[in-house]
């Protein structure tokens, strides 16, 4: 919906009109609705495991089970390298990070379709919804991260080759990059799927394929030279590598790779916001 | 100028009928191509008036076409029209759910729109949690909700259930809770779309009272309803929409409702509904006049007199007769709604 500051501020609070500027992103409006964001985060988090007995434990069970599976299939049967790190720890780190990214992306990508009913009845900045998804998924990530730290402590205690270093301090930046990237890509896809739903199919299996093109299940060092650029072109790869390097001392960390991820995030976020705010004005007519 | 709360100019909304698929893709491509060359949208020139019962040749219809209107601050405006006249489209544009195709609306003040009650309720959350969520969706801050929480719970009358998940509520209770939040939004401009059609009689009365209260405190209210009696109770002015255009510009609500009833509601009923068109079927006596609520011609609004109906009639007869009076009330659809028969009149009453 278009909103612009009228020429004479004292006369009108806002003007509803068909078009608007390309970069009229209404971030101020978003800030005004911050209470709604926190309430939506709470709603997502609280309602997810209502009427379950194990409750939030499921946040931890999910990555644990897939880590065990990965350890058996990729580690023991296929015998992929883990850079000398304990297999469980290696796969758990990849899993937790990838789960956050793919979870945010899939959930954000259906913002318009899933909330068509709500959006059709009341106005609030539509960006509130994907932002709240990224935050509530971050709470999940936090729980899983604590779980990961416990695991790591256990392995250090038992004397495994795990050496955290100063790059651990990069974690907040890595997190922001993942959040921004999944938010940006998510809102691009949600804007693309309001009228023509084709892109939804692409995204569904695309995310699954993309996991194999990142270093969630193998280290970058094991990749032959000629494929390395391909794997590195996945902007999640430098993030996972930097994470492994910081927390466990193994991995291919480079500022250049991370810079590429950061650039990708900024561009995707900008494109996403522009597309999203343009679509949100009239998506109700075509959804 | 400073007095205006809403000013709409040239407001139009075009919709495309039919399915979204390859057909609409080719139109989209044409549109992009036109935009790319700096030409106006080719599909804005086509489009027909939106009459849902007539089949047309164009895929595009105008749900609203060049609407102009102004609403002053503190005005309570009723919007009347048949289904598909464009009322809801207008409200959607005003509440910023969708953008107009052309034209602008200038607004002064915070708008809250009640196109539905209980929007965004989550079945798994408790009543209290949903009050916060619903309030925030409608633009309240957490602190505002906390301040009004007791009032809201009290108004809803669901105190006992307030810490129970909303999925255990009866549908009426959900509506009560939703309206209770809406009633405490305190916006400068309130937009209401037929939400009063739900809830029991007691609660409907409470809602109307609350809305009159809101309107009385100098707030601007836009109200859409098919219920002519509640719209006349609430609003001072009215407009009639028909097929996307304003058929009757802003006037006194009674005039607007009168026009609407005459034009649309009475088409299926015989002309006998008008007071000045009665007939006598006997020669034994003749009816001289009938007055209902002191009116002897045109039509009467029963709601004007708080629902009381006073019927005066004069009958002339050449000789003494005894009369039995029987009164039957039918609604506009011809359904029998009331029956009154006081029995035989005694001689001293019927001497004329």
CATH top level assignment of one domain in chain B: Alpha Beta
The gyration radius over C-alpha positions of chain B equals 26 Å
DSSP summary: helix tally of chain A: 13
Mean pLDDT of chain A: 86
- Cα-to-Cα separation, first versus last residue of chain B: 61 Å
Class based on secondary structure composition and strand pairing of chain A:
mainly alpha
CATH topology category name of one domain in chain B: Rossmann fold
Low-confidence stretches of chain B: 268-273, 348-352
How many domain modules of chain A? Answer: 1
Radius of gyration of chain A: 21 Å
Mean pLDDT of chain B: 79
Q: Going across the major beta sheet of chain B, what is the strand order? A: 6-7-8-4-9-10
Which regions of chain A are unreliable across 5 or more consecutive residues at pLDDT < 50?
Answer: 1-10
Largest sheet of chain B: 6 strands, mixed
| Main β sheet profile of chain A | none
- Identify the overall geometry of chain A: globular
**CATH architecture annotation name of one domain in chain B:** 3-Layer(aba) Sandwich
Describe this structure in words.
The complex is a heterodimer of chains A (about 290) and B (about 350). Chain A is about 65% helix and about 0% strand. By secondary structure, chain A is an all-alpha fold. In chain A, helix 2 (about 35-50) packs across helix 7 (about 130-155), helix 3 packs across helix 4 and helix 4 (about 85-110) packs antiparallel against helix 7. The radius of gyration of chain A is 21 Å and the shape is globular. In chain B, helix 6 links the parallel strand 7 (about 190-195) and strand 8 (about 220-225). In chain B, helix 3 (about 125-135) packs across helix 5. At the A-B interface, strand 1, helix 2 and helix 13 of A face helix 1, helix 2, strand 5 and helix 3 of B. Strand 1 of chain A pairs antiparallel with strand 5 of chain B, so a sheet runs across the interface.
